[in-house]
Amino acid sequence: MDGPGTVTWEEFLENAEKFLVVSAKISDGWELRGDKDIPGEAYLVRRAKCFVPNDSATKKDGSTGDDDDAEEFHVKFREDPHEATSTSETPFIIEHHILWSVSYSVPVLFFNGWKSDFPGINPVSVNEAQTVHGSKLNYTELSQAIHPIVGTPFLQLHPCLSQGLLQTMSKSKNKLVSWLSCVASAALNLKIHPEYFKLTH
């Protein structure tokens, strides 16, 4: 698919390579995996560790329990990710993947979070991911999907809204960064370092 609001595979790779140069410069941890020679088969990935309140900790309203639908989910990033600062916190691993959608010709964000020291243990639900700020996200196209490259379940920001976003970024010199800055907060509060924005102009 080509036209306004789309990104070619070549443009995605070019934007991704520049993104990786900045990531290496600021030690942000992004890397490129997969086969760049096959459209849609390479992707950006980063894994990070932080800490979140334990499920058994008291919630803001004073109640306790593990009702995922009602629980407010607050991610606390720490400078030193190796130890929790108190017994009321638990390790939390977040993994973000930025792919190129063959069907939509746009970038697409897949991510997972695990309230554990080990990926795959105690995954974050769609409901928890949508309340990461303590209030419902406006981004409604969040769902679970099978990752098209690694073949395991991930949370996904559906690419159907990305064309509209990209149409407003036609003058950006790095549409990947511009797009990511718009959708990152819906993906377990992904933070984009200001250094990346220099790529867009």
Automatic annotation (TrEMBL):
It holds the Pfam family Autophagy_act_C. Keywords: Autophagy, Transferase, Ubl conjugation pathway. GO terms for biological process: autophagosome assembly; autophagy of mitochondrion; protein modification by small protein conjugation. GO terms for cellular component: cytosol. One of its GO terms (molecular function) is Atg12 conjugating enzyme activity. Belongs to the ATG10 family. This is Ubiquitin-like-conjugating enzyme ATG10. It comes from Temnothorax curvispinosus.
